[in-house]
Design a protein that fits this description.
Shape: globular
Strand content: 35-45%
Structural class: mainly beta
Number of helices: 1
Strand order of the largest sheet: 2-1-7-4-5
């Protein structure tokens, strides 16, 4: 699967199928600190990702007004 990461900006090719949490572990990313998006849909940590999927991984950013 083609994985787009935003911080730092890069693309990697990962063999599938595998669960979302396995993908994040393989990339050494903290599960709770990242959003995984397939197409236009947010996927959960237990969903299976296929070899043909295009995935985007974004860090969770929090903030607000003072």
């Amino acid at each position: 699967m083609l994985v787009h990461l935003s911080h730092p900006q890069r693309q990697v090719e990962i063999k599938g199928p595998k669960r979302t949490k396995e993908l994040l572990r393989e990339l050494n990313l903290v599960i709770e600190a990242h959003l995984v998006i397939r197409g236009d849909e947010l996927v959960t940590e237990d969903e299976m990702l296929a070899d043909a999927d295009q995935i985007e991984i974004r860090p969770v950013i929090s903030g607000g007004s003072v």
